[in-house]
Records
---
Amino acid sequence: MKLLLRGHDDRYAVEQLQLALFPEEPMEPVTEPFSGDGAVSSLHTGAVWLTATAEITLHGKTGRACRRLRAAEADVPARRRLLQNTYYEAAMCLREPPAWGSLSGVRPTKLTTRALLEGRTPAEAEKLLRRQSMTQFTPHTVTDVDALLQEIEDCRRCGYAIENGEYKIGLRSISAPIRTVDGCVRYTVGVIGMFRSTRSDEFHAAIERVCAAAAMISAALGYRE
């Protein structure tokens, strides 16, 4: 799999990520534009912003991503994170959303799909949800799209999502969004366990810790409120 760098020479950071994400694709660094499968990692340095872009083509599909970082905050570690996060986001565009309930007991609507839907229109959110296979794992599993859309709106308002026995009876989870430097939600952080109930003190303490962890990771990625 070819790799072309433009505007930067931080080959190590991008190469290591490419090898981790595409272990079955042989690495081939190049210095000239190419056609076919491969990745292009670019960095434009402006007076105010550093803008990173990534474009990855594999087996006929192309994923693209673009992120920015204030030049005043662009030390070496921050610039490396910018390049890696941009590459990772482009790589994730090549992957299909996970199947409903496939995340080892954590329902993707609450942890994965919610992150994908953040900032999208209700029509886009509904389209993505209707592509999922709605399996009724327990009597508590929510499979109605309208109800799920309302839950997603509730999650946006309170800043976190909870799952209460929808995959396995007695199993409960919490997730909170992680924002990147551009303010978009790309990831989530969460905890899952056999909490006594969603009203217990231990569950509310877990909510606080998950939200604090999400805020800390967001700040590390360059997000500022």
Note: The helical segments are 11-21, 76-92, 108-111, 113-117, 122-130, 145-158, 201-220.
---
Amino acid sequence: MKTPTAPAAPPGGTPSPEGAINDEYEPDNIPNQATTLEAEIPQTHSISTGDSDYVTFVLSETRDVVLETSGGGGDTKLYLFDEAQNEIDYNDDGGVSYFSRIHRMGLAAGVYYAKVTSFSGTTTVPSYTLTLTLSAPLEPAPADFTLAWNNQTQSVVATWTGTPTALTYNVYYDDDSLQPYDPEQQAAEGPSPVSTDVLTQSLSGFPMGTYVYVTVRAVNAEGEEGYGTEIQGIMVPLAEDPYEADNTFNTARFIESGEPQSHSIHAPGDYDYG
């Protein structure tokens, strides 16, 4: 659990009684006082005890939006609202250290508001930078993505539905769910990502008992990747023990007194009855 801290005020400016620096955009504590935030033109703000900083921006067409706070020290929370001031996104520590970052894909044209506060109403942020980055939306992620284990081929099998403009698909895999996709164990089909022009991909050669995490991105004729599917993970099963199938009372194996049996829970959901 985070412990609220009050960072020391940096040199320059005039400290408020709470220790933060009064920035040039105050007052901006309510939506009607929001400062206009332009893309790629960062603003430097501060947060005093109980303070909120509102900004507004306008999208003339659908865009991918990144709102991010950064700085030398501090802990912010970031909120995104539509024109009617309905909250549509929130982030606490998605940026560097305890700063905040919202990445909203395919945000429709319109007026939006963002609010920045400190982690706790009793803490201050003497100085932070708020940045808005806009980019053209990417191709949608492949739909109906599934991941399954094929016992016959001893492989993880990913399947999905194609996207209209995709020429090929990049299948990323790893032994954890975090980027970059840099698995310690490479699949027999090649390094991550594996490229394919069909709607399924098998991945084999992983040690038993390990987890494999997979996501798929469409690639168009210009070589541009789209959004990735939700990352899914699956365990490579252990080898079945000689007493399988023994998953129910009716298939329970008889055990003799003084004669140990060696079993394995070879896959999630496996049970051994004796």
Note: The mean pLDDT is 86.
---
Amino acid sequence: MKKSIILLANSLRIGPKSQRLGTVLFGSTVSSIIPLSSSATALKNRISRLQQPRTFTATALGISAMTKLFLKSRPGARKVGIVITDGKSLSESDTLREAKRARARGVIMYAVGVGSSINKRELRGIASSRAHVIELTDFGQLQKSIRNLVNNICIGELTDDLKRNSELGTLMSLANNYFNQ
């Protein structure tokens, strides 16, 4: 997972006048927040030092923390939240409520489910639309899919201004041994 987020950072145009990326790592609590950053080097160093929390999945808390990252967004920046999970949250209703709040605050939400233990209904409830739900069989597939994910999320049909001016928050919670991949 860490390698996938670093690959994501490498695939973006991170910089002071272009894209910024932040990350929230959570389990039953939010264990680490990396604020939106315009320094790819600093961001990748902080991501590489993250430690996997070995607890349950309180996705609602993670989405709430990710939404707060965007309070420091640049004016006019497109806000994109990417939730990557390999399981089910502790409270589906709380998770869906927080995802709805994030969308109401202008965050375009993507939900990436990895593995066979995902809750498809919950993924659809997190995402801004069904087109923003991505289901993958394993984390090897996530690494292979990063470029397509970046194209779908960051480029798509955006104007040149929005391609340069976007904020991305990633949200990670993994209960298995794929965290360091």
Note: The two ends are 5 Å apart (CA to CA).
